[in-house]
Amino acid sequence: MPLAYYSRGATSEFWSEHWGGHTVAELLAVARRSPLTDLIERHLPDGGRLLEAGCGLGQYVLLLRERGRAAVGADWSFEAVREGARAGAPLAVMDLRALGVKDGSTGAYLSLGVVEHDPGGPDAILAEAARVLAPGGVLLLSVPYRNGLRRLLGPWLARRSRRIRAAGGEFYQFAFTRGEVRRFLAARGFEVTSLHPYDPARIPRKALRRLAGRARPAPRGIAGSPAALPSAGGPPRPIGTRAGLRRLLRGLLYAPPTLRFLGHMILAVAVKR
Q: pTM for the whole thing?
C-alpha cells in the first residue's frame, strides 16, 4: 500500500493559492537550472506534440517551447492557467480525468507531482493519459518516492498520518515505491523503461529548517540567515573552496545510493504499448 499523507486537501482552491505565491518568471528560472529539466529532455521523443497535464503556471511549457518543442499545458486551476497564458504559454483549464484532447493525438505526456494527489489513486488520470497518447508515445511521470528513509520511518510516518487524520486532516498525497509505480503504470498499458529518483536535498533541507526554527533567535542586529554569519572557524573560505565544496556535496547527493535513500520524488519514463 502507498504511504498516505494528510494535511489540507489538494483542491483547485489549494492549487490556486499555491501557484499564487509564485511568479512565472521565478519558476521558469528554477526550471532552467534544475537537474530535472535535463532528465526530462533526455527522455523526450524527437517530435510530436507534448502535453503537460497539471502544468501550474506553465513554466515547463514555456521552457520546452523555447527549445523547439510543440508543448501545450492543462491544469484545473483557472488562476494558474490565466497567469501562464499571460506569459505566452498555450494553456487550458481542464479536468485531467476528462481531457478535451483527441484520442492518440499526443506524442509525449508530462506529469510532475500530480497523480499522487487523487485520493482514489492515479488510475483515472492515467486512463486519460493512455487515451490521448499515440501508440509508442512516451509518458514522463513523477510522484513522491517512498525512498529508503521513508521506508525506514514507515511505522512512525503511518502513526503520524493517522493522528493528523483523526484530528481533522484531509488527504493530501501518496508516496510510492518503485514497485507500486511499475504496477499502476502497467495496469494502464504502459511499459516502464527507467525510473529516476531526484531532489535528494529536499528532505535534509526541510529538517534543517525545522531545527533552525527551534533554535534560539539571533540577537538584534544579526541577520538570521546562517549564510550571513561569519564562520566560527576563522575567516570565510575562498570562493574557489566554496565552489569545490558545493560540487563535492552535489556529487554525494546525486550518487545512486543517496538518490535511492533520500530522493524526494521519482520520475518514471514509460512507453504506451
A: 0.85
